[in-house]
């Protein structure tokens, strides 16, 4: 009888993805994601392959095993090939909240791009305020555009702490906008979102979608 060990597909895809990204091989990275797409739903490809691969590359960088240019190219390649795994069909919901997304004093853009793309494919229109925005900018834009839910993506702790400034400026302007945060600092510390006075924190794309649905439900939409 053959004695085959169960193969952990995700681990194989991650290994291939990391090798492709570190050798700046966009075609191989794309092929790895396409292969993973035959086994997983698009959201799972993100959570089980893209995010862990980049996390390991980030760890490699902190241990001096990976250069910053490799980190940069890895993020760039993932951003470029993301489109290929995204579901293309979507219908725009008729009644919906006015939602915006941005990175706050932070230029890690991929998480924001992914959350926006998946919300879009779930039928939500999301205004994109771009990257590296200041607290003041975000507050004036959300007030001007009558935004009801502001999604903030940050990957660095100093940026995460700036969310408190967004809340303070909103309060000064009597703006009752729901703030949803996500990104590594909030995953490391599950009380941080309360400290910075956000309303919700999500760890994944699925969390982002579920949070929006629950805000909609609470408002009878
Ligand atoms: C790629 C990368 C870069 C690229 C970014 C390219 C780009 N266009 O995005 C480049 C090279 C530019 C870069 C630069 C820097 N980086 Co960098 N980078 C990374 C790395 C390796 C991957 C990040 C990533 O794209 N992950 C994949 C995405 C999909 O995951 P994600 O953003 O977490 O998003 C998921 C969830 O968090 C969630 N989510 C995200 N946002 C939101 C929002 C909401 C509302 C919700 C609900 C959910 C949600 O959904 C997403 C999908 O699951 C991380 C390592 C890591 N552990 O994350 C380091 C990392 C974030 N970088 C780090 C650092 C220090 C830097 C630099 C300061 C380095 C330097 N000396 O210059 C600069 C700072 C740049 C700046 N001012 O913003 C540190 C941060 C440490 C800290 N705690 O502060 C990390 C953790 C690396 C490390 N291990 O030390 N980086």
Automatic annotation (TrEMBL):
Keyword Methyltransferase assigned: yes
Ranges for domain B12-binding: 95-221
EC id: 2.1.1.13
Single GO term (MF): methionine synthase activity
Coiled coil: none
UniProt cross-references to InterPro entries, sorted A to Z: Cbl-bd_cap (IPR003759), Cobalamin-bd (IPR006158), Cobalamin-bd_sf (IPR036724), Met_Synthase/Corrinoid (IPR050554), Meth_synthase_dom (IPR036594)
Keywords: Cobalt, Metal-binding, Methyltransferase, Transferase
UniProt-listed PANTHER family: METHIONINE SYNTHASE (PTHR45833:SF1)
Record has Methyltransferase as a keyword: yes
Source species of the chain: Candidatus Magnetominusculus xianensis
Pfam families, sorted: B12-binding, B12-binding_2
Gene Ontology biological-process annotations: methylation
Protein name: Cobalamin-binding protein
EC top class, as a word: transferase
């Amino acid at each position: 009888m053959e004695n085959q060990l169960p193969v952990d597909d995700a681990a194989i895809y991650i290994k291939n993805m990391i090798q492709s990204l570190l050798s700046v091989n966009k075609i191989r990275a794309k092929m790895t994601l396409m292969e993973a797409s035959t086994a997983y739903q698009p959201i799972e490809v993100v959570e089980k392959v893209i995010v862990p691969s980049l996390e390991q590359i980030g760890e490699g960088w902190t241990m001096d095993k990976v250069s910053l240019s490799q980190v940069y190219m890895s993020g760039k390649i993932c951003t470029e090939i993301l489109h290929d795994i995204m579901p293309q069909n979507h219908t725009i919901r008729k009644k919906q909240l006015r939602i915006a997304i941005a990175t706050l004093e932070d230029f890690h853009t991929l998480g924001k791009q992914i959350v926006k793309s998946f919300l879009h494919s779930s039928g939500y229109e999301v205004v994109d305020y771009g990257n590296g925005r200041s607290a003041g900018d975000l507050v004036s834009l959300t007030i001007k555009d009558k935004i009801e839910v502001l999604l903030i993506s940050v990957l660095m702790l100093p940026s995460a702490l700036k969310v408190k400034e967004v809340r303070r400026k909103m309060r000064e302007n009597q703006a009752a906008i729901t703030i949803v945060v996500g990104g590594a600092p909030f995953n490391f510390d599950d009380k941080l979102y309360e400290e910075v006075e956000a309303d919700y924190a999500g760890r994944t794309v699925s969390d982002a979608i579920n949070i929006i649905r629950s805000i909609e439900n609470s408002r009878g939409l």
